[in-house]
Design a protein that fits this description.
GO terms for molecular function: deaminase activity. With about 130 residues, this protein is of the alpha+beta class. The chain has two helices and six strands.
Length: about 130
């Protein structure tokens, strides 16, 4: 059985998907990009600020499922320029303890929704 997770503290879906789906004790989040959930405005600024907003959006989705980044077991990061990876990784890493950080892959892609620079999704377990 699945439960749809939704919060006004993260951007509303812009298509036929939900912010996250809880199946049993496992949460699958949709990819988050740097959209301000209060205004719906797309962030336009330095990559560290963009990544911070992405992580804040993920944090809000996790909280809506009564979870935190400590529950995350897998993360996927999509970037449009691998040259931004060090800055993205610095921000991303600040949300995790190195000793218990989740598994992860980082993939460079040609384009992302709304032509953002980074999109991140996670899988978390209670």
């Amino acid at each position: 059985m699945k439960k749809i997770i939704s919060t006004p503290n993260a951007p509303a879906p812009i298509g036929p998907y939900n912010q996250a789906v809880l199946s049993g004790n496992t949460l699958y989040t949709s990819g988050q990009i740097a959209i301000d959930p209060k205004t719906g405005a797309l962030y336009k600024g330095p990559i560290k600020g963009e990544t911070t907003l992405v992580m804040q959006n993920l944090e809000a989705v996790l909280a809506a499922a009564d979870m935190t980044f400590e529950n995350v077991v897998k993360a996927t990061i999509f970037v449009n320029k691998m040259n931004d990876f060090a800055a993205i990784n610095e921000v991303y890493g600040s949300y995790f303890d190195d000793d218990t950080a989740p598994a992860r892959e980082t993939v460079e892609v040609a384009n992302l929704p709304k032509y953002v620079n980074v999109e991140i999704s996670v899988i978390a377990i209670k």
